[in-house]
Amino acid sequence: MRDFFVLPFLALNQHSSAWSIAHLFVIFVFTTNHSSQMKLPNLKTIAGLCLLFLTFAVSMHAHAQDRADMLKNSTPEQRAKMQTSMMKTKLQLDTIQVVKVQAINLAAAQKMEPLLKGDGGKLARFRQMREIESTRDKDLKKVLTDDQYKQYEAAKEEMKEKMKERMQEKKQ
Questions:
Q1: Nearest-angstrom CA–CA distance, 91 and 148
Q2: Model confidence over 6-31: pLDDT tens digits?
Q3: What is the rounded distance in angstroms from the CA atom of residue 27 to the CA atom of residue 134?
Q4: Dihedral angle, C-alpha 52, 16, 85, 116, nearest 10 °
Q5: For the chain, what are the domain ranges?
């Protein structure tokens, strides 16, 4: 009987908040003292919660796919503007830095455009993207203060970790 309750939750991403909520629910249901006074949740309630969690998981996946499509379908100018806006907020850039960072981001986004839209080998494209990112980082280091650059590097590392997690999730 326990498998009936657990199976729907296996479809959820183990790192998502939906997984956490679902996991807590399963633990609650099966660790609660089910005395004769306490009523077990009925099947309709459990099925409804399973449906709710699965719907949430599917919508999270769709949102991630939308973001990937948005990135591919955006122009270099749009991508550079989004990046600069995010960096302005996270790194607290001044107005002069914003102008310089915008130019650096735009140049990198324009160089990335053929790689994002191209059909070449993934490894070759990845290497070219890394070269572009390396050049971009060198240019940014000239514009940002030491503290800002450390924050930028930390944010970049955090994004890499999230990407690794997503890749692992896709493999599962």
A1: 6
A2: 444 444 444 455 555 555 555 555 55
A3: 47
A4: -100
A5: 2-68, 75-171
